[in-house]
Write a structure and sequence with these properties.
The chain has 286 residues and is of the alpha/beta class. It has two domains: 173 residues, FAD/NAD(P)-binding domain (3-Layer(bba) Sandwich), CATH 3.50.50.60; 91 residues, FAD/NAD(P)-binding domain (3-Layer(bba) Sandwich), CATH 3.50.50. It has six helices and 17 strands. The strands form four sheets. Strands 1, 2, 3, 4, 5, 6 and 17 form a seven-stranded mixed beta sheet that branches. It has a five-stranded parallel beta sheet with strand order 7-14-8-9-10, covered by helices on one side. Helix 1 runs parallel beside helix 6. It is globular. The protein starts with a strand and ends with a helix.
Length: 286
């Protein structure tokens, strides 16, 4: 079992790892990519850099620094996290366990621009199969997405709904969809219904009748994982206290996923605080 697993290798995740590893705690980072930082072209407002630096340069430097302190960095996509006292982290390729987890994957900025989605949020449109799937027991539902995250959500729903259809909104699926899950790759025109969601209408005016649509675009983010294990959410952010601790013992969050300024300086502080407090938590468990 790992002592600490950090999800995300951006400024918050790397900062956390530097503090935990230097405290002598075996630390593993799991991340698929560099997130928002890797897409930043020029950064001019970060302390200590007289000349502009690219996000990719800063990301590479942080990863190199973490490795120097013995942090294990795994390039993989996390699809779910469970908690039964300890944490189970499932990726596309493997399953890990840890005593403590720090969520640091940034803010999920993928919001589909489809007519009706804002109208039916909370009235059939959901962002968490584990949280809301129960309300659709024995009914037909859909999952919006086409990657491993969407497949994970669809697979979870299969155990209690009547049918699951993955709708990709015109994008080819990147996952191997099993035969017991339907898939429609047509572009979506709108979500429709009366007081609650009833239909997904495609651009050719054909439709499917569903009681719910679960949005799972791209890869799962920190807020998605937090919801699934019962962590308190404040709007679209993970609720944390002054120590970056959630209401789940051993679960911390840092960076953009906690709200506030979407700035590297803030993410680095959050990571340092989360890492320091996570070490204290582990020592109390000994």
């Amino acid at each position: 079992m790992n002592e600490i697993i950090i999800i995300g290798n951006g400024p918050a995740g790397i900062s956390s790892a530097i503090y935990t590893s230097r405290a002598g705690v075996k630390t593993t980072i799991i991340a698929k990519d560099g997130g928002a930082l890797s897409k930043a072209d020029i950064i001019e407002n970060y302390y200590g850099f007289e000349n502009p630096v690219s996000g990719k340069q800063l990301l590479a430097a942080g990863i190199s620094q973490a490795k120097k302190f013995g942090v294990e960095i795994i390039n993989d996509e996390v699809v779910s996290i469970d908690c039964d006292g300890n944490f189970t982290i499932k990726t596309i390729n493997y399953e890990y366990t840890a005593k403590c987890v720090i969520l640091a994957t940034g803010a999920n900025r993928i919001t589909p621009k489809i007519k009706g989605i804002d109208i039916y949020e909370g009235k059939g449109i959901s962002y968490c199969a584990v949280c809301d799937g129960f309300f659709h027991r024995g009914k037909n539902v859909a999952v919006l997405g086409g990657g491993e995250y969407a497949l994970s959500e669809a697979s979870h729903l299969l155990s209690f709904v009547k049918s699951v259809t993955i709708i990709t909104n015109g994008v080819e699926s990147t996952s191997n969809i099993p035969g017991n899950i339907n898939i429609i790759t047509k572009k979506i025109k709108e979500f429709s219904g009366s007081a609650i969601l009833e239909k997904v209408i495609f651009e050719d005016d054909e439709y499917i009748s569903v009681s719910g649509v679960f949005v799972a675009l791209g890869i799962a983010g920190s807020v998605d994982f937090a919801k699934k294990i019962g962590a308190e959410i404040n709007g679209r952010n993970i609720a944390v206290d002054e120590n970056m601790s959630t209401n789940i013992p051993g679960l911390y969050a840092a960076g953009d996923c906690t709200g506030g300024m979407f700035q590297i300086a803030k993410a680095v502080y959050d990571g340092a605080k989360a890492g320091t407090e996570a070490v204290k938590y582990l020592k109390k468990q000994e």
